[in-house]
Amino acid sequence: MKTNSTRATPRRGLLLGAAGLLTLLLPALADAASFADYKLGEFYPVASVDEPAVQAVSPAVVRMSGATGFIIDTRGYVLTNHHVYESFGRGGEAYRQWTERGAAETLTLRLVARDKARDVALYLITNGDGPHPYIQTREAPARPGEEVFVLGHPDGDPQRASFGRVLADGLQISGRPSIEYSAQTWWGSSGSPVLDKRGRAVAIHWGWDSEGVSNGRLTGVPIAEVMALPAFAEALEGDAGPSRPATPSRPAIDCRDPKRWSLESTRVRASVRKNADGRWLDQVEVRARPRAAACAGLLRSVTFHLHPSFANPVVRRPGGEALTLYTWGSFDATAELRFQDGSSARFVDRVSWR
């Protein structure tokens, strides 16, 4: 959960403690108690919540190393925040429906797309068989006064629900389109779905208000803004099951566009050798991966321009073949792509596997 504030905030319980201050910040809060009379500002274990919508979406919420994500279609695409990606990395393990009874399933995730401006990232489940449980996304915008709930992992706890109402829409906060809502979140709630009474995602939770208050006025990016991002739309197009409406036809994808590509970094073995400075090095495989399925199989070769500290900082590999590195830290690399038709492209991305 990102915030630039240093002010102290309560870990649990009442919104701000003083009734007068509460009224000042949220004049409509007297009417903002959630549906089913759950208390505003409280967390509820999923097992204690009778609302059918909460129980229905619980299997599609995942715990991601101290944060939250949620599955948005039957193939296993998982949505979370970009600032979660910054700590989680390009891949790793997550836990589906992590409640007091433990996790229903351990998932292996791989990064598919990310957008820092909207603070969102998209992963794909790469283990197990589908179809996966999912949360339906809602195209219609959330409106002030609408009842919503947030389901996630505050403090890394098992799944917790909190309830409130949409307070404002059509906002620009920290440079991104946002809505505000009353509920309760904490560190670890980043990436949680903000859901309507039918259990449809209307936003992805990304932070607190401009003053860093953890409960009271919370902020999220409308889900329609996320689904409209080109890299996300391309990844999700096709037969996505009943979670998304059919995608209208699109013009042909230009695979020479650098935005269509990313570097995928996978740790094969940890601490396999030492360098001259005595640092343990991981064995890492790096590949150029298309963000659109239509671009798969078009590469003839990839030339990697690595950090100058490598003995061979420029290495060429046939298209699709992994480059094996022994390294200890993340760094930016340039990939020069050569396609089967003789055309080329060039992009810069982060080599990061932790």
Keywords, separated by commas or semicolons:
20 strands; mainly beta; globular; single chain; Immunoglobulin-like; six-stranded antiparallel beta barrel; Thrombin, subunit H
Task: Give a structural overview.
Strands 8-9-10-13-12-11 form a 6-stranded antiparallel β-barrel. A 6-stranded antiparallel β-barrel has the order 2-3-4-7-6-5. The protein folds into 3 domains: 125 residues, Trypsin-like serine proteases (Thrombin, subunit H, Beta Barrel); 70 residues, Thrombin, subunit H (Beta Barrel), CATH 2.40.10; 94 residues, YEATS domain (Immunoglobulin-like, Sandwich). It has 354 residues and is mainly β. A hairpin with a 4-residue loop joins strand 19 and strand 20. The chain starts with 18 loop residues before the first helix and ends with a strand. The N terminus is likely disordered.
How would you concisely characterize the structure shown here?
This protein is mainly beta and 354 residues long. 9% of the residues lie in helices and 38% in strands. A 6-stranded antiparallel beta barrel has the order 8-9-10-13-12-11.
Q: Which homologous superfamily in CATH is the superfamily of the largest domain?
A: Trypsin-like serine proteases
CATH class descriptor name of the largest domain = Mainly Beta
Profile the largest sheet. 6 strands, antiparallel, barrel
How does the helix and strand content classify structurally? Answer: mainly beta
